[in-house]
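Example 3.2
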Amino acid sequence: SYNGTAQQNTSSLTTTGKMNTALSFDGSTDYIDVNKNSSELGLTSERTYVVWFKTSLTQGTQANLVGNYQWIPGNIDYGIGLGFKNGDIRIDVGNGTSTDQEFTWTPPSSYTGSWHHVAMTWDGNTIKLYYDGAEKLSQTAILAESTHDYVLGKWTDYWAAGKYNGDMDSVMIFDRALSASDITALYTETNETTLTTMMVGTDAISYDANGNIAVDRKGYQYDYDYENRLERIKDSSLNVIAEFTYDALGRRVETIEYDSTNITTRYYYDGWRVLSETDASNVVHRDYVYGNYIDETVMMVDHASSSDYFYGHDHLFSTVALFDSSGATVERYEYDAYGKAVVITNKGSDGIWYTSDDMVAMTSAKGNPYTFTGRRLGTYDSGAYEVMYYRNRYYDTETGRFLKRDPLRY
């Protein structure tokens, strides 16, 4: 994500949105400059624009939602813009000539005053328009790339009247042409606002339309992307306590913990196994060595303490002991029936493990993240919240529940 520059007539562009907070444009001076062009965003032959919009007006001659459409004197056009023209939804594709490639679709007259989802895809040959999750237009076109920055709410520098009057939420630009099922999933994900709530004892748990836990028994809330991957966790006051980023293969490549200090951790993989962890400055903190089994971690190199640690496992590949380079046991691990870990971090003054003076914690004092079944334990919200990362989904050890269904529907 990038922080754009707001050009505005009022002190704030924000308003109540489809999900949380939206951008509100006055149709006169308000717009957002993303400060990045296609090259800087990594957009080459394909792209997708997605936006939720709400307007009380039938937009005038020209009104842009999102794009990098560039018109210069002499009627030469570049880039792609998604917006409105005389009430129709319009896609304008510049081909580097004066020949205008304008594609329009007329939405229902009732579109004003409520939130609607619109998306545009370009696969290098065909432009498609989707409205509320359904394909409405498909046309071949020729694109000449624009060097113009992407903007929200404004058509082009040379068309002062091309400002959008209304609200926008969840604006997304992808570097590929999403499929029809992808677009439908994006629409459904944010349009299904009704949650299903069930009682587990005296605890209420709410699920979204895709079967993902949306609000757990402690009031923590979960946001998912269009592939149902967990993106962020919020506390009961809607403060974000953690965010997660994934690569094209679905592997988690970054976590951000929002605490007294924001901690960013990045992950580098061999297949599905983490080899190294770095901070936001790409300073390596830990390296890992594995055995034959995918979750068989045998060694952790902790660069902060210049220490090597070795793992002892049980039959489930759960970590049961951590040893230093001399072979001495430095931590022991116990689990309940659902995998919640208790870490014995010190054997106390008597020098004997499993006696009353042992020091006990919920997480490793050596920074070891691998616990139950060899998977990663994450601790957030100043230690008040724990969740385990199982690659394609997350697991709550206190309840023995995954936050979502298995992607293979197992």
